């Protein structure tokens, strides 16, 4: 491994790679499995479409806001660097700590677990093998990311193309062959309240949209980050929004609302089977497995880069800032994140719970970043620096992102206070760790 300052990350990723990482990291299994739960919580088809649409609008507003923050703080490290630049080193550290130590290994293990269960069912083998399969997927994706960054980027492009196939099919089949009225139907049993729980439906879609911000972690590996980063975020989120709305509308056109709810996680499979039979259902399972591997790859690309950036700032162990001399990727950070994910996958079945708790804290930092665009505009008002991207419809756009983020945080506190409190405690554990590294830096000077 190399630690010399002359060895830097390679700038060879373009717009296609950036777009693929945004789309590939976000679109995993949520759009295929969440149709019934969102519809049930919303209370009807019209409300269900509105929930997916509002979640997308909030995410798009968030993306437009973060694109400006990234232009004003042109550093690698993504959200960690943005919060650090706006609020100082402690808040920046807690942002990176919560993502690298808590969220990253948990969510990677969780994705591996879902993919492994689908694989076991697809192969017709005992589910007892799923844990080993999940670990195997983690090591496979880790191996890809130990090669040159264009390999992982190429895998992102490939898996994104694959996962777009069923999305296009579902949209087209629903539009041209669906015979059900896609608007106006209600469900007889609605979650939470007699009138539905539209807010919780929006919350569920926001979790399905999460992950787009991670592309900011590869800024220093983009050929033209000033152009490609905001383009990738904005158009990537817009493509995801249109895909989610299209798939939802297609499913609503094929199946009655009550049937979608009764089918639960199998609603999308039922649509595919009606079009292509049992073979189509098996093909869909395979595509979703590939889709989830693409999502895992996006996480494995992004989070080690954050650990690498924090190590360069002296806030994580020094070995994490080393680059492979052959492939020029942060190999130690990649291996470390993969091993933490493997530990969770091997010894606990609660990875999904951990990732859900971590999402709560990530949205807290999202909101801080959205507020940061107001702070940065005021702070940099007299500077002559060129801003490559400015949030359109300012200040309305960032305010939409702030309100959406506040809704996520408030809803989680209301629905799972103990879980939210646990998540906050996990983040606060990072405070003594931060001061340990600060004191270490003082003694080494």
UniProtKB/TrEMBL annotation:
Chief place where the protein resides: membrane
InterPro entries reported for this sequence: AA/rel_permease1, AminoAcid_Transporter
Membrane spanning residue stretches: 12-33, 49-69, 90-116, 128-147, 154-178, 198-217, 229-255, 275-296, 328-347, 353-376, 396-414, 420-438
Pfam family, one: AA_permease_2
Classification of source organism: Bacteria, Bacillati, Bacillota, Bacilli, Lactobacillales
Keyword Endoplasmic reticulum: no
Cellular component, GO annotation: membrane
Any one GO molecular-function label of the UniProt entry: L-amino acid transmembrane transporter activity
Keywords (A to Z) from UniProt: Membrane, Transmembrane, Transmembrane helix
Coiled-coil ranges (or none): none
Membrane topology, as annotated: Multi-pass membrane protein
Subcellular location(s) per record: Membrane
Name assigned to this protein: Amino acid permease
């Amino acid at each position: 491994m190399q630690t010399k300052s002359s060895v830097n990350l390679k700038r060879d990723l373009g717009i296609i790679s950036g777009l693929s990482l945004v789309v590939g990291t976000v679109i995993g299994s949520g759009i295929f499995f969440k149709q019934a739960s969102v519809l049930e919580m919303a209370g009807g088809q019209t409300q269900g479409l509105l929930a997916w649409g509002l979640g997308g609008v909030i995410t798009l507003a968030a993306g437009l806001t973060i694109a400006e923050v990234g232009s004003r703080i042109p550093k690698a490290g993504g959200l960690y660097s943005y919060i650090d630049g706006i609020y100082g080193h402690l808040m920046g550290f807690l942002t990176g700590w919560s993502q690298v130590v808590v969220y990253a290994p948990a969510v990677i293990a969780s994705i591996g677990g879902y993919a492994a269960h689908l694989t076991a069912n697809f192969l017709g083998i005992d589910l007892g093998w799923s844990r080993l399969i999940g670990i195997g997927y983690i090591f496979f994706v880790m191996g890809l990311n130990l090669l040159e960054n264009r390999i992982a980027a190429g895998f992102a492009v490939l898996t994104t193309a694959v996962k777009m196939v069923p999305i296009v099919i579902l949209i087209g089949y629903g539009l041209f062959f669906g015979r059900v009225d896609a608007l106006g139907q209600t469900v007889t049993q609605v979650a939470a309240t007699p009138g539905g729980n539209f807010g919780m439906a929006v919350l569920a879609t926001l979790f399905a949209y999460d992950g787009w911000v991670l592309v900011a972690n590869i800024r220093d590996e983009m050929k033209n980050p000033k152009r490609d980063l905001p383009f990738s975020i904005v158009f990537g989120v817009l493509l995801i929004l249109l895909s989610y709305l299209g798939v939802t509308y297609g499913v609503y056109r094929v199946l009655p609302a009550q049937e979608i709810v009764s089918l639960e996680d199998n609603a999308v499979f039922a649509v595919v089977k009606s079009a292509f039979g049992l073979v189509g259902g098996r093909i869909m399972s395979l595509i979703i497995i590939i889709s989830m591997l693409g999502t895992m790859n996006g996480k494995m690309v992004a989070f080690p880069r954050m650990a690498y950036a924090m190590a360069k700032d002296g806030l994580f162990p020094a070995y994490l800032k080393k680059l492979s001399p052959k492939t020029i990727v942060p190999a130690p950070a990649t291996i470390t994140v993969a091993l933490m994910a493997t530990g969770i996958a091997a010894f606990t079945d609660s990875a999904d719970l951990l990732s859900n708790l971590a999402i709560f804290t990530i949205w807290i930092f999202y909101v801080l970043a959205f507020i940061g665009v107001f702070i940065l505009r005021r702070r940099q008002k007299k500077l002559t620096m060129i801003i490559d991207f400015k949030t359109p419809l300012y200040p309305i756009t960032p305010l939409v992102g702030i309100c959406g983020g506040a809704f996520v945080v408030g809803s989680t506190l209301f629905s799972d206070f103990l879980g939210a409190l646990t998540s906050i405690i996990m983040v606060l554990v990072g405070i003594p760790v931060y001061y340990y590294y600060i004191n270490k830096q003082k003694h080494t000077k």
